[in-house]
Amino acid sequence: MTKSLIPNKQLSRPVPGRVPAGVARDLLRMVAEHGGSPDRFLRNAGLSALGTVLIERRDDRDSIAHADFTRLYARATAMLDEVAARQEGRTSLTKGGVDMMCYAIITCRTLRDVIARMDQFFALLAPRTGRLTLTIAGGEARLDMATIRKVRNSCAYLSDLTGLATHHRLFGWLIGEDIPLSGTAMRYPPLMDARTVAYLLPYPVEHHAPENRLRFPARYLDRPVVRDHHELDLLLERFPFDIEEPQSKQTPLSDRISHLYASMLASGDAPATADELARRFSISIATLKRRLTAEGTSLSRIKANARRDIAAHLLRDGRLSIAEVGRRAHFSDTGSFCRAFRQWTGTSPTRWRNS
């Protein structure tokens, strides 16, 4: 086997950053909605110092340390999942259960084998977990993750959203590659703040879907698992609540920026400027542009593609006006959006929606 065909499993983690305080506040709001005291919750989590920022200040410009958010997210998800399980008259899947699932799949040969063994594992845990159904059509893999919940409120929503994000991150970690999602869906109405959803799962989420679902290129199914038990032991110290995913060193800069732009647009933020991106990746603007040129693209092209993709996704929702879709794609006015969309697709947004 030549060296170029050997999967590269050396991943580098980005420098831990800051998390918007609004995301943490949304989780605290859900804790309060389901009978928990935010003050007591923070105290029990060893995060009392965050009370000033998260409860008293309410400033949208605030942020908290990533490590603090990871602890808060883990505690909130555990509490709210227990609430959701009690509503169904069953016990919840614990962190220990998730760890055992990971040990069960670490010896699989390919990602396809991983999904099959996961489904077998979930069958043993019934009725606490639903089954996985993998469908392949037109070069795309669709993984349906059946929800067994009858009560679909915000705590159940968070639990299932975390499940989708966990599977996506775990799949990528196992094969040593970032797996781009072509679609995500949930069998719920939108029950959480859109910015929080986009932070936890940075892809546009379709709601009111037939089932919880991930869609991605089918070619990743035959990628080999490149991890071992020692690496898994290290991962499980922080998984699944450390959501700063490791990036493959081989991932092109253009792909990383595309992913970042998709996340920003999905959460309602404007795409980062060249200066902001240069600071984020610790390079100069000249180096940023030079690397993108070497990869056969440019920042303006990546931004246009991201706006096109979010617009196409939003146009599927007939409840949104053309003007609202343009606004969410960060166009200054409807006319500019319609002209750009026609350049991208050769047709108007209205005709595209009705086709």
Features:
355 residues; alpha+beta; two-stranded antiparallel ribbon; 16 helices; globular; disordered N terminus
Question: What does this protein look like?
Answer:
There is one protein chain. With 355 residues, the protein is α+β, with helices and mostly antiparallel strands. It contains 16 helices and 9 strands. The chain has a 5-stranded mixed sheet, with helices on one face. Strand 6, helix 8 and strand 7 form a beta-alpha-beta unit. Helix 1 runs parallel beside helix 4, helix 4 crosses helix 7 and helix 13 runs antiparallel to helix 14.
Spans of 5+ residues with little confidence (pLDDT < 50)? 1-16
What do the pLDDT scores average to? 84
Oligomer: single chain
Distance between the termini: 48 Å
Classify the beta-strand content into a percent band: 5-15%
Structural class: alpha+beta
Q: What's the alpha carbon Rg, rounded to whole Å?
A: 21 Å
Q: What's the overall geometry? A: globular
Spatial sequence of strands, sheet with the most strands: 4-5-8-6-7
How would the blueprint of this fold be written?
Layout: E1 11-12, E2 18-20, H1 21-33, H2 38-44, H3 51-57, E3 63-65, H4 66-88, H5 95-105, H6 111-125, E4 132-137, E5 140-145, H7 154-175, E6 183-185, H8 194-200, E7 205-206, E8 213-217, H9 229-235, E9 247-248, H10 253-266, H11 274-280, H12 285-294, H13 299-315, H14 322-328, H15 334-345, H16 349-354
Parallel strand pairs: 6-7
Antiparallel strand pairs: 1-9, 2-3, 4-5, 5-8, 6-8
Summarize the structure.
With 355 residues, the protein is α+β, with helices and mostly antiparallel strands.
